[in-house]
Specification:
By secondary structure, the protein is an alpha/beta fold. The protein is 31% helix and 24% strand. It has two domains: 164 residues, Thiolase/Chalcone synthase (Peroxisomal Thiolase, Chain A, domain 1), CATH 3.40.47; 151 residues, Peroxisomal Thiolase, Chain A, domain 1 (3-Layer(aba) Sandwich), CATH 3.40.47.10. The radius of gyration is 19 Å and the shape is globular. The N and C termini lie close together (12 Å). The structure holds coenzyme A (COA).
Length: 327
Amino acid sequence: MKIAGTGSYLPEKVLSNADLEKLVETTDDWITSRTGIKERRIAAADEATSHMATKAAERAMEAAGVKAEDIDLIIVATITPDTFFPSTACHVQRNLGAIRAVAFDISAACAGFLYAMQIARHFINSGNRKTALIIGADKLSGITNWTDRNTCVLFGDGAGAAILTTKTPDDGDPSGLLSSVMASDGRLTDILSVPGGGSAIPITPDNAHLRLNTINMQGKEVFKAAVKNTCEACEAAISRAGLTSDDIAVLIPHQANVRIVDAIRERLRMPPEKAFLNLHKYGNTSGAAVAIALDEAVRTGVVKKGDNILLVAFGAGFAWAASVVRW
Ligand code: COA
């Protein structure tokens, strides 16, 4: 399996740290020094997750030279679906006219895009499907508590996509997925969640004021789980690829917090210039973050043909994943 093309989409509206200073008791200095985030994008009220996902998909299809009728698998990784059902992937399938595809969503929060890549890889390597469209897309602004300074400064909206295709062993193309690690730890479900709005705690007129259908987070616990688990996953993915961290040309990490990226990088003994960052512009876009970063790194020439790149993501679940890809 190889990545034949990438695409991304960010909504137009920019929400800066200065704008947030007017909403909650915070400062640009606090947000920048604790997270690295300067601004984030916010989707329009009528812009659903599937709209952003479709735009990112169209760009990936154009980059890969793939038409809607070629696609036989669509996986959308999202925690902010358009509707409980049908899946956002089916909305995207309709928008694209990709009628030959089987389409479904997966829920793995910020690790979703890498989970989708690894699921699609199994479909492709088994010969079951030939051309997959994987998308990470989230409209976190819709589940953010805009009165909670602990969380509202961190997140943004966006979508990223990739087209994965089969490759034949004798086509002379060295690009492809070299290794992957996928893991989760359900003991940590409570440290990052949207507790209400599902079957466990439905939102009723009586509890609506508690904002249980917005993000609830224990920041320090998430920080610790992220660093420990992603460092181990990165080391395992590099080793399974038969490489050392010196062989990795570009690290494309989940764009949650620059201090988490620094911790991963330092553990892997990678210099700062190897980590691709765009969190200062977009904040944490959950399932979209690694996909958008990959697309930007490819389009700006940071990732070059033949490079080994390390993708790593973590999020609610707790769920995390790492993959080494040769470009
Ligand atoms: N502006 C100003 N002060 C803030 C603030 C904000 N936006 N958010 C929190 N604070 C305050 C806290 O209330 C606390 O005040 P107190 O000491 O009076 O109680 C103080 O800043 C320090 O908070 P603390 O939680 O110790 O900060 P931190 O260094 O751990 O940074 C996070 C907080 C959220 C940035 C950090 O824990 C983090 O990034 N965690 C991971 C979050 C994440 O990545 N989530 C998504 C995973 S996919």
